[in-house]
Each structure stands twice: as structure tokens, then as C-alpha cells.
Amino acid sequence: MLRAHGTVAHVVLLAGLVGLTAAPARADILAVYDFTYLPAQSGLTATIDSGLDASGTLIGNYNETTNPTGTRTKPGFFGPFGATENVAVNVNNLGAGFNGNLNTDTTGGFRMSFDSANGIASLSDLSANFLGSGPANLPLTVSLSTETFRTRNPTFLYPGVPINLPIGNASLTTLSLAQAGPSAGTLTQTGPNTYDFAVAALVNVTLSASVLGQAFDLPGATALPFGFAGSVVFNGNTAVVTSLTPIDFTQTQNPAQVIPEFELPLPTLDPNAPANVLLNLTLNQIGADIAGNLQTTANGVLVPTPGAVALGVVGMSVLAKRRRR
User: Fold this and answer.
1) ω into residue 154 within 30 of 0, thus cis?
2) With the CA atoms of 276, 280, 283 and 284 taken in that order, what torsion angle do they form, in degrees rounded to the nearest 10?
3) What mean pLDDT, rounded, does the chain reach?
């Protein structure tokens, strides 16, 4: 940490640049720190409402050579159904929703520059993995809407109304954010070596999930606003940032992505005899709404290289000049 006032300022600044022990607490802060999340004290507490919609065709898993006793399908209520017929059926929509509560650990880190004389805090290189403790399982609801069709092995009729499928969970495998570019905000002293900060940033949020045995991705193609505010306490060459930040992320994409063929058991009157069909679908839409709070406790270390410190100082000086215009 670099602190100084009066004629001592230049001596303390030079001492910090060559890696000497920081001076005792003084009035001004002019320094750059790298922060690392403490997972046990950092995490996301939120509700998530996410889902996907796809369309295409389904067909029985019958194969004359490899699966001659498999399910066969044919569109329509009535009509002949040949002994080896297996005809594709239009799928109007397969909707899958995975929703619930998250209470996770956060890993990652960020860099912050501080200029107390000008009241500026800047944020860069923010990268947060909200699933630091591993994937999260969420209750899964699936609805299938098709044209009317019949099956053999087993024999059953699906009258063209949406079917709700009793399926357990989806696995949320990735939920993270990455800062889209450096940003600056305010820095206000609230006590000895203690400051409040508030920075408005843009971030890209990425989500991946495993649904029905398939992997689906919602990449952060659109930057979303993220307000990062909290407190920082300086202690020599180290610092601690604490924050409780509300978040509200909404993201939707229409990827038109072909999904690899996968098998799905459809319910019949006999729970032990489902109709096993193969789905060939295109992913039309995937989206997620995430609302809650991000708790942050992060330990910071003074950036040791003179170049990095100088870069942060120059950047903050430019921002200070812009603010004064």
C-alpha cells in the first residue's frame, strides 16, 4: 500500500515501487491491488428461472436389425400400421424449464486501483465462478407438444396435446461472469484506512446446463450492467474488500442450434412400459433470469511491479482529469 501526505509523499511512493515495507497509515491511498475471493465467505444467493425451447421430429427407436422389438411411431389417429413401419412425427415444441434456489461459493478475483486524493476507485479483470463448490442440481420440468401419433411396442395413442414428462433434475454446470472492460467509480473515506467504493461495470454472464443428457450453453454474448459497491480496508501491503451486491441478470438467445439425437421415454398407462423415441431437434431459444445477492469477501495484495503500479496511477489520473472537466 502507498500512503503519504505533505513532503513525505514522494519518499513513500518510491518505497512502494521498489517493494519496501509500506509506510504506516496516512491520509492518501494511491495503489493497485489484486484481490482473490474467499469461497467460504463469498457466494451467490439467488433464484434462477431458466429454460429452453426446441422443435423438430421424433421417431421410435425401432431398428429392424439392432432393435427389432423397439418402439415404432406413426402420425394420425387411425389408419393401417405396417408390421415394420416407423414414421417420424412432428414435434411442435419441447420445453424444458430448470428453476430453483442457488446458494453457492464463488471463486475467482479482480483488480482494483485506488486514488483517494481524487476519490476514484477502478475495477478491472473481474472474473467470478459462481459454482466454486461444484455443479448445482435444479428441479426440471419438461413439456412435449407434438402432432397426434400412435405407437407400437407398446401400443399407445398420443392425441396431440402437451405431455408433461416426469423427469427429475437438470445440472447447472457453469454459471460465471467476466468483466467486459475496465470501469471506474467513486472512493469515499469512512474511517482510518477504510473506504467505501461504488463502481458501475459491464459483465458477460455465461451459463451451461445438462438437460435430458444433453449439454446446453447460454454464452454471455451481450454485456449486462453490474454495480459493484462495498468497503475496502487497507493494512500495509494487503487489503480486504467486502460487499453485498444485488444482482438481476436476464439473458435470452435464439441459437438455431441442431441438438444431437437423443432418446426419451414417453409415459404410457403402464409405468413399466414407456414408448422409447428418438428426438431430432433444433434449439430455438435458451434463456435465464437470475435475481439475488452476491456476497463478496476478497483478500488483496499490493501489485508488486512498478510498471503495474505506474499504469494504475496513470489511468486514474486520466480519469480524474475527465471528471474535473
Assistant:
1) yes
2) -100
3) 88
- Which residues, in sequence order, are CB contacts of 17 under 8 Å at separation 6+? 306, 309, 310
- How many residues in total does the chain contain? 325
Is the per-residue pLDDT at 22 higher than 60? no
Closest CA to 297 of 19, 7, 43, 86: 43
DSSP structure class, residue 8: G
The residue among 177, 179, 175 whose CA lies nearest residue 200 is: 179
Closest CA to 119 of 177, 178, 198: 198
Calculate what percentage of the chain has a pLDDT beyond 70. Answer: 85
Q: How far apart are CA 80 and CA 94, in angstroms?
A: 28
Would the pLDDT of 77 be above 80? Answer: yes
Give the pTM.
0.80
Q: Tens digits of per-residue pLDDT, 218-274?
A: 988 789 999 999 999 999 899 999 999 999 999 999 999 999 999 999 999 999 999
Q: CA-to-CA distance for 172 and 19, rounded, in angstroms?
A: 43
Supply the DSSP symbol for 106.
-
Tell me the sheet residues that pair with 183: 123
**Comparing 201 with 316, which gets the higher pLDDT?**
201
Among 172, 254, 225, 239, which Cα is nearest to 35's?
239
Nearest in space to 180 (alpha carbons), one of 230, 207, 220, 216: 220
CA angle centred on 183, ends 181 and 186, rounded to 5°: 170
Euclidean distance between CA atoms 288 and 247, whole angstroms? 13
Half-sphere exposure of 235 (CA within 13 A, CB side): 7
The DSSP result for 80-136, as a single string, is ---TT----EEEEEEEEEEEEEEEEE-EEEEEEEEETTTTEEEEEEEEEETTTT--E
